[in-house]
């Protein structure tokens, strides 16, 4: 196996990771929809099992990628006269990483953690037995209208995204435009929420706020 073959394999593995991430996003959305639609708890639990399966695949891919990258770096660093069997070396590293696996690894998967957090919040909103109670819960959230106002546009948000670093929420298009504008100037973006000290907002730190989006949609229907 050659360096070019490994580079090609790594590229394919990273594409697979992207597909896994997309699958986890879909599974999260389905689970939230199930809770909102008052589906059986067993259906929601089945989506959590799907998320754990995805997390397992993601961990395995991470180990493969890391094993091959470490192998390449090791060979380039040591510069042996005869090129060793790169596949065997990578396989050894991979198996060593796999031997240290634990269930806690899966619990720490970023997408899985987000899934659990969103599910917990959604159950608080929609876990009651009557629509009247749901309306009351939404009304409680609605009392703080400032939660709905984007700190950039000063308008009610339509597609809220939460910053994983500082926890503040913005209108998706507005914050992405700000990031792009500052990037062109080769400058960092400070969180536009007044009083926030976070001074390096990145697009990769933004995640959709499913709970707030549903509350906003509920308000719009009323």
Q: Which class do the helix and strand fractions yield?
A: mainly alpha
Distance between the termini: 63 Å
Oligomeric state = single chain
Which stretches of 5+ consecutive residues score pLDDT under 50? 128-146
Number of E-state strands: 3
Per DSSP, what share of the residues sits in E-state strands of 2 or more residues? under 5%
Helix content: 55-70%
Number of domains: 2
Shape estimate? flat
Q: Please tally the helical runs, counting DSSP H or I stretches of 4 or more residues.
A: 8
Tags for this model:
222 residues; mainly alpha; Herpes Virus-1; 2 domains; three-stranded antiparallel beta sheet; 8 helices; 3 strands; 65% helix; 5% strand; flat
Explain the overall architecture.
The chain is mainly alpha-helical and 222 residues long. The protein has 2 domains: 124 residues; 61 residues, Zinc/RING finger domain, C3HC4 (zinc finger) (Herpes Virus-1, 2-Layer Sandwich). The protein has 8 helices and 3 strands. It has a 3-stranded antiparallel β-sheet with strand order 2-1-3. A hairpin with a 5-residue loop joins strand 1 and strand 2. Helix 2 packs across helix 3 and helix 2 packs antiparallel against helix 5. The radius of gyration is 22 Å and the shape is flat. About 9% of the residues have low confidence. It is found in: Nucleus. Its main location: nucleus. One of its GO terms (cellular component) is Smc5-Smc6 complex.
């Amino acid at each position: 196996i050659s360096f070019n073959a490994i580079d090609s394999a790594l590229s394919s593995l990273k594409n697979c990771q992207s597909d896994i991430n997309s699958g986890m996003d879909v599974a999260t959305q389905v689970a939230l929809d199930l809770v909102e639609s008052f589906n059986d708890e067993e259906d929601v639990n089945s989506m959590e099992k799907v998320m754990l399966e995805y997390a397992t695949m993601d961990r395995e891919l991470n180990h493969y990628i890391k094993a091959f990258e470490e192998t390449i770096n090791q060979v380039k660093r040591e510069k042996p006269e005869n090129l060793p069997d790169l596949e065997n070396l990578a396989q050894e590293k991979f198996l060593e990483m796999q031997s240290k696996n634990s269930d806690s690894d899966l619990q720490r998967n970023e997408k899985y953690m987000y899934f659990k957090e969103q599910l917990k919040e959604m159950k608080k909103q929609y876990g009651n037995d009557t629509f009247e109670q749901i309306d009351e819960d939404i009304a409680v959230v609605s009392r703080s209208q400032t939660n709905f106002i984007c700190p950039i546009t000063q308008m009610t948000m339509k597609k809220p995204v939460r910053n994983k670093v500082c926890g503040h929420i913005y209108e998706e298009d507005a914050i992405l435009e700000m990031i792009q504008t500052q990037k062109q100037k080769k400058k960092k973006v400070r969180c536009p929420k007044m009083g926030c000290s976070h001074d390096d907002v990145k697009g990769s730190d933004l995640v959709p706020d499913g709970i707030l989006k549903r509350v906003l949609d509920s308000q719009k229907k009323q």
